[in-house]
Design brief:
The structure is a single chain. Helix content is 58%, strand content 0%. It is built from 4 helices and no strands. Helix 2 packs parallel to helix 4.
């Protein structure tokens, strides 16, 4: 997940604030939710901080199923 977060553009409008918001939300997540989040990053191929923040609101729509890969 750190590798993905390093690609976010800090020069976007309020970029640093958005990344700090992401970091705080991630810190408060369970390990299972972090796994789902990481998988979602890869699946959605997000390219903006706003898109990443959007995923947090939709995270309950995703799940990881052992043995299933969608890549």
């Amino acid at each position: 997940m750190d590798q993905y977060l390093m690609t976010l553009d800090m020069k976007e409008s309020n970029g640093i604030d958005k990344v700090n918001t992401l970091a705080n939300r991630i810190d408060g997540m369970s390990e299972k939710k972090r796994l789902i989040l990481t998988s979602t990053f890869e699946f959605e191929m997000l390219d903006s901080t706003d898109g990443t923040l959007r995923i947090f609101g939709e995270l309950n729509q995703y799940m990881c199923i052992k043995g299933i890969a969608t890549f």
